[in-house]
Amino acid sequence: MRETRPITSAASRSSGPSNELGPLTPSSPIAPSSPPKLFPFLLGLADDRLVLGHRLSEWCGHGPILEEDIALANIALDLVGQATLLLNLAGKIEGKGRSEDALAYFRDGGEFRNLHIVELPKGDYAYTIVRQFLFDVYSYHVLEQLQKGAHRELAGIAAKGFKEVRYHVRHSSEWVVRMGDGTDESHARAQKALDDLWRFTPEMFRPDAVDIEMQEHGIGPDLTALKPQWDGVVREVMGRSTLVMPADSYMIGGGRNGKHTEFLGHMLAEMQIVARSHPGAEW
Amino acid sequence: MWRAAVTKNGCRQSREKVMEKQPAATTDEDLNAAFEARIANGETIEPKDWMPERYRTQLIRMMSQHAHSEIVGMLPEGNWITRAPSLRRKMTLLAKVQDEAGHGLYIYCGAETLGIDRAELVDQLLSGRAKYSSIFNYPTLTWADIGVIGWFVDGAAIVNQTVLAKASYGPYARAMIRICKEENFHKKQGYEIIATLARGTPAQKAMAQDAVNRWWWPSLMMLGPSDTDSPNTAELMRWRVKRKTNDELRQRFIDLTVPQAEAVGLTLPDPDLKLNPETNSYDFGPIDWEEFWAVVKGNGPCNRERLQARRDAHENGRWVREAAEAYASKQQRAAQSPAA
Question: Which chain B residues are within 8 Å of A63, Cβ to Cβ?
Fold first, then answer.
């Protein structure tokens, strides 16, 4: 079903961004015929959200406005919550007894499958918000498709995430417009962020063997078909923001294959240090 | 947006409006007598009611200190969000620190009903004129500190705020009722972190004990100077802004906490701590008030860092706030201009 109004509009929300997690105990039995690439596919989805949620959480206590501190923490909670559900499912699909925590805290950078754009340091508020907007619109379209996909449990997680990301897109797009059409300084900062981040966006829509297999099984979306939809939303918001869409340039990427920027290693070193210092401990 | 959110909550109240209610023909003396009678009668004072200037300033001081404490308190705990050892702990800590931001916002709004702007209150904090709780000037050194802060610091805050929920000023009392509910949740989470560590590996248990050792005395100090040395207590008690003295609150906190420490097999770092069979309360050793006053006066381990972090956030956010205001003005002008 297609939205009849812009996804950035103040769509009514059936519920606020939820911090709650459903039960993580094994629920429905996993079909034994899960396609072999479902595990790496789930890791990619989970890692995008875990890494970006982590980056957002770095703002907590340091936001430009108290209300934004609260809003960013909400979005970070949603993203880490989505990642937790996805990693839990990934662990069950893999079938080696790895929990969501084992997957989050005991994989090295080369085993992370997130996009480059989410692992970049948080930068200034313009950089954080523009990055968030570009990812939110991508995530909106991905989750919208996934919730209709053939894998029931994944579709359920996507449906929950889709409700949340509708709010995220609204939040980030409103701030992109506010910054772009605010003061000269905010405009310049937002434009610079957009120019700096643009080269990381083609990676979102470049399907690899995992994506293709998932699409063939009716589980994952056709990424190339999502690109025009993403372009349309981004173009519309950039228009309202008086920001200039950069020209498409050479793609930076490789995250889905475990080839990352220098930044991910530092982030993981911090994120994983306590868990790895006490292997086997419970928290 | 940030300003709009304040007005939307209906918590902004101009000084002029506050004073409107004052009947023109009545003398200050009569008003004061009527106010004291209302207090003595156990009535709740609401924003539009007449109140002595001193009552207003004392409440602004208390409420803004409380709000500032919530905001500065985000920093020591926020220090561990990126290192929380499991996804569940990461989310609960993030949600907890977010709750503190919400509490700060809520109490700033409450203070605004007394005719002062949030911007002015924030300026008082950043310029060092306003105080915040001394406890947040101590560093968080290990993951166990997150547990102990929930257990001790939120525990002490609950003891204090449960009493403040009966304060004479309506908006403050109502804020405390709401905030206490969440603080209870935080305390349970903190205690649960410590209980988990205490039954964990030897290294985890040592981590928990070390955190208890470092936070116990500062937590006792957090409930304020001894009654003999608390300049504001008598007046605040008379006005029912405070309902218990600092020493009474401290004793209550100790009596609640000692059995909880025993239950998880951790030791509180006070050799003099023992149950007094006559009072059925715990006697405890002398508090190092010299340390307390040093921290209050800005010489604690993290005073400078905490204030600097808040100043940096404020300065770095200036262009964001300006952009939001500029955009809102443009929208307003566009809405007011005749339709094309």
Answer: 313, 317
Q: Is A75 helix (H, G, I), strand (E, B) or coil?
A: helix
For residue A30, what are the contacts with CB-CB under 8 A and spacing of at least 6?
A92, A93, A95, A153
Task: Please judge whether B91 and A84 are an interchain contact, meaning their C-beta atoms are less than 8 angstroms apart.
Answer: yes
**Please, where are the H alpha helices in A95-222?**
100-105, 116-119, 125-146, 152-180, 184-197, 209-216
Nearest chain A alpha carbon to B85: A275
Which candidate, B307, B270, B268, places its Cα nearest to that of B288? B270
pLDDT band at A119 (very low <50, low <70, confident <90, very high): very high
B326 vs A76, A81, A182: nearest CB: A182
* Nearest CA-CA distance, residue A230 and chain B, Å: 25
- The residues spanned by each domain of chain A are 38-277
Q: Are B183 and B150 in contact (CB under 8 A)?
A: no
E strands, chain A, in order: none
Where does the pLDDT of residue B228 fall: very low under 50, low under 70, confident under 90, or very high at 90 and above? confident
The pLDDT tens digits of the residues spanning A15-61 come to 443 434 444 544 444 545 689 999 999 999 999 999 999 999 999 99
Beta-carbon pairs below 8 A across chains A and B: 153
C-beta separation of B61 from B172 below 8 A: no
Q: Shortest Cα distance from B61 to chain A (angstroms)? A: 20
Q: Which CATH superfamily is domain A38-277 in?
A: Ferritin, core subunit, four-helix bundle (1.20.1260.10)
